[in-house]
UniProtKB/TrEMBL annotation, chain A:
Name of the gene encoding the protein in the UniProt record: sleB
Signal sequence range: 1-23
Stated name of the protein: Spore cortex-lytic enzyme
GO biological process: one example: cell wall organization
Pfam families named among the record's database cross-references: Hydrolase_2, PG_binding_1
GO molecular function, one term: hydrolase activity
Domain of life assignment: Bacteria
Family: Belongs to the SleB family.
Alphabetized UniProt keyword annotations: Cell wall biogenesis/degradation, Germination, Hydrolase, Signal, Sporulation
Positions of the UniProt region annotated as Disordered: 120-156
Domain Cell wall hydrolase SleB residues, every copy: 184-282
Domain named Peptidoglycan binding-like: residues: 42-98
SUPFAM superfamilies, per the entry: PGBD-like
From TrEMBL, chain B:
Domain PepSY: 374-434
InterPro entries with a match to the protein in the record: PepSY, YpeB_N, YpeB_PepSY1-2
Chain ranges of the Sporulation protein YpeB PepSY1 and PepSY2 domain: 180-367
Ranges where the Sporulation protein YpeB N-terminal domain occurs: 27-162
Protein known as: Germination protein YpeB
Superkingdom of origin organism: Bacteria
Length: 283, 446
């Protein structure tokens, strides 16, 4: 009972807030923070930037909170049309012009982002026509009540940056392998294992895909004994992203082994590069 | 009475356990069989592909019409790639497949290069025909060896799982037909490599060249340590683990790690000249206070302070609370793509968390680049007309042969996608087309 009452109270509060925001839809406190927004940035400012650019017809992509190429060209075209320097950076002048030229209905955007709807935000078209509701009704409602409790917290992007050519799933699979193989190792030890996987993908003597390298029989002990299916932690994921972005503490190694347990004499014959933690890395 | 009841219960229990055990055994067998089948499939597939490959190279040699040659070479390329996939599925480590894989890879690259070339303009050279002849002969040898092994496998009903077991249980040399057979295959390829590979196919392997921009005197371990302490402002008391690289390293270096109350650090510093090649600092990153742009300014400042003055930002990405940047060396108005430096900056306090200059030191050289002989407008015409060109600059890129080429780099859009297209600034050839993709929807939101 108490929960219900609380819910009703929240609903009332929320509707109150809604009425306030509809009276002042472009309240200045909802405008950008004072950061310069550039290519690659993520977050609420990017959502606002994309929404405003879409409102005046420059941006046709998804409002997802990640400043990708689509947003970049939209911003440059905006700068061109409004006679500003064309540098693809959203600084204070750009933001001022943008705020003047467009409207930003934060609650409309919030509602749709948080309930996972597909939506657009073009000015001059009734908003109701720009939303494609998610079929998963239950989830939507659950998220909606959450929305009302969340008033005032920041908006989360619905997309992420990924290094060119790699999907989040590839990163996840590599993180699994790294965690299974080297969860007791230091950070560089984990980046090193991820780097070896990547070096193998580039090497002519190994398969050319993430899964090909990882699942090559007897290539990794963690795959053989099932430790690859442990849930990796954030450290392993960060290590993988660093390796994909170019960090390679191994000096381009394509093999590594644990000298305490390695039985194959062949592996000892490889030219060694260095030792990181428990692993010796070699060519 | 009680005795009878307990006997009955026990009998039922024993029967149940037996049934359960039998079922488990069946399941285990089913899985073993499935694994075995995977190996069998990969192996037989490989044999077949190599056979077919041999045939195709043979017909290529017999061909004279150029219109048919390119598709034929593409077919060879496709077959090698499938054969490679099959090799990748067979047990590694004690079966030394390296040479076989390398051999396949070489055929693949050779056929690809020649296939994409305009053979009308530039037909196969005598040397290339020689190479193809050699590849044909060796592919034949390998095919024969593989067929031999296959025959024994089929006749004696050999199981790959037994090889697997043999590999797991002992490191003694064992009497195993499959392993012996593959060792023969490997020897066959090795002989090929020693005799022919060095002459006809040099430059085809994917190996990178040596470090060009490492200059100066060798430094000692203690000098390296001193330099690292200075770079990270470390206390003299703080423990620093440092070691020199082994024989396998392409560039001799010192690697050091430290742990202070704030973070864990790891750095590689070249022995010659004492250049920091890369470092990374790992710590928990607090709430974001800085924008990606602020972080970029810190990274640029760091580069300037460390003597990299002509670097220009090429790519920036925010991953949670860190910013990752790629910089390219810019000479005049030419961006040199191989000379790149990566940096990572924390968005809580702006600390430089990571730095990689390996590519820069490997590729950088002081040369003057000539003016392009093709005008910008002419180059633009070489770009696919359905692409809207948004931006362009001059660039130095490496081609498949690791040679430097002056090119126009065009950034263009087609629908929602953005492409980077390189056009040779002298010949007008399209060198490379890349689709730029850096944003992906979170899969857990839908």
């Amino acid at each position: 009972m108490r929960m219900k009452k609380k819910g009703i109270l929240l609903c009332c509060l929320a509707s109150l807030l809604f009425s306030v925001t509809t009276v002042y839809p472009t309240h200045s406190s909802y405008a950008f923070s004072n950061q310069v927004i550039q290519h690659g940035a993520t977050g609420e400012d990017v959502i606002e930037l994309q929404a405003r650019l879409q409102y005046i017809g420059f941006y046709n992509g998804k409002i997802d909170g990640v400043f990708g190429w689509g947003t970049y060209w939209a911003l440059r075209n905006f700068q061109y049309e409004f006679g500003l320097d064309i540098d693809g950076l959203a600084g204070s002048t750009v933001k001022e012009k943008l705020v003047k030229a467009s409207q930003y209905d934060k609650e409309f955007i919030r509602k749709n982002i948080e309930s996972g709807n597909q939506f657009t935000y073009y000015g001059g078209t009734p908003k109701e026509q720009q939303v494609k509701k998610d079929k998963n009704n239950q989830k939507k409602q659950a998220q909606n009540t959450q929305t009302e409790e969340d008033q005032g917290t920041s908006l989360e992007p619905t997309a992420v940056n990924v290094p060119n050519g790699f999907s989040q799933n590839d990163i996840q699979l590599m993180a699994n392998a790294v965690y299974g193989e080297a969860r007791g190792e230091s950070y560089e030890g984990q980046v090193a294992v991820a780097a070896v996987i990547l070096n193998r993908i580039n090497s002519p003597t190994f398969p050319n895909t993430v899964s090909g390298v990882i699942f090559e029989p007897r290539a990794f002990t963690a795959v053989a004994d099932g430790q690859i299916w442990l849930t990796p932690n954030d450290k392993a994921k960060r290590a993988v992203v660093d390796a994909i972005n170019g960090w390679d503490p191994t000096g381009e190694a394509i093999y590594y082994f644990n000298p305490d347990t390695a039985t194959s004499s062949w592996i000892w014959s490889r030219p060694q590069i260095k030792r990181i933690g428990k692993h010796v890395f070699c060519m | 009475m009680i005795r009878w009841i307990s006997i009955v219960i026990l009998a039922i229990a024993i029967f149940a356990t037996g049934a359960w055990g039998y079922q488990e055994h069946q399941e285990k067998n089913a899985i073993l069989v499935q694994a075995e089948n995977n190996y069998q499939r990969a192996f037989h597939d490989l044999t077949y592909q190599v056979d077919l490959l041999h045939d195709k190279i043979g017909t290529t040699l017999a061909m004279n019409t150029k219109e048919k040659l390119s598709p034929q070479l593409i077919e060879i390329w496709r077959l090698t790639s499938e054969a490679q996939t099959d090799v990748g599925q067979l047990p590694l480590v004690l079966l030394p497949f390296n040479k076989t894989e390398e051999f396949l890879s070489n055929i693949g690259e050779f056929s690809y290069r020649t296939a994409v070339r305009d053979l009308e303009q530039e037909p196969l050279s005598d040397k290339e025909v020689d190479t193809l002849n050699n590849l044909y002969k060796k592919a034949g040898d390998i095919k024969n060896e593989l067929r031999k092994v296959q025959h024994v496998v089929l006749e004696d009903n050999l199981r790959w799982m037994d090889v697997q077991m043999a590999l797991v249980s002992t490191d003694e040399p064992m009497d195993n037909t499959i392993i012996d057979g593959f060792e023969t295959v490997e020897e066959t390829v090795k002989a090929y490599e020693e005799s022919d590979l060095s002459s006809g196919l040099t430059g085809i392997s994917n190996e990178t060249h040596e470090f060009r921009f490492i200059k100066g005197e060798n430094i000692s371990e203690s000098q390296a340590e001193e330099q690292i302490r200075k770079l990270f402002k470390l206390d003299d008391e703080l423990e620093l683990t440092i070691a020199e690289s082994g024989d396998g390293a392409q560039l001799p270096m010192y690697s050091a790690s430290f742990q202070n109350e704030k973070e864990h650090g790891y750095i590689d510093i070249s022995k010659q000249g004492g250049h920091p090649l890369s470092f990374m600092l790992n710590r928990e990153i607090n709430e974001k206070n800085l924008s990606l742009n602020d972080a970029l300014l810190r990274a640029e400042k760091f580069l300037k302070a460390n003597g990299f003055s002509d670097m220009v930002m090429f790519q920036s990405n925010q991953y949670e609370n860190v910013g990752v940047f790629q910089f390219l060396y810019q000479q005049g108005d030419v961006r040199v793509y191989p000379d790149k430096i990566q940096m990572k900056v924390a968005l809580d306090d702006g600390e430089i968390l990571g730095f990689v200059a390996t590519d820069f030191y490997r590729n950088h050289e002081n040369t003057e680049y000539e003016e392009p002989s093709l005008a910008l407008e002419e180059a633009k015409e070489r770009v696919n007309p359905t692409v809207t060109i948004q931006d362009q600059h001059l660039a130095i890129v490496e081609d498949d042969f690791k040679e430097r080429i002056l090119a126009y780099a065009f950034l263009g859009t087609k629908g929602q996608d953005t492409y980077r297209i390189f056009i040779d600034a002298n010949t007008g050839q399209e060198i490379k087309v890349e689709k730029l993709k850096a944003v992906e929807t979170k899969w857990n939101i839908d």
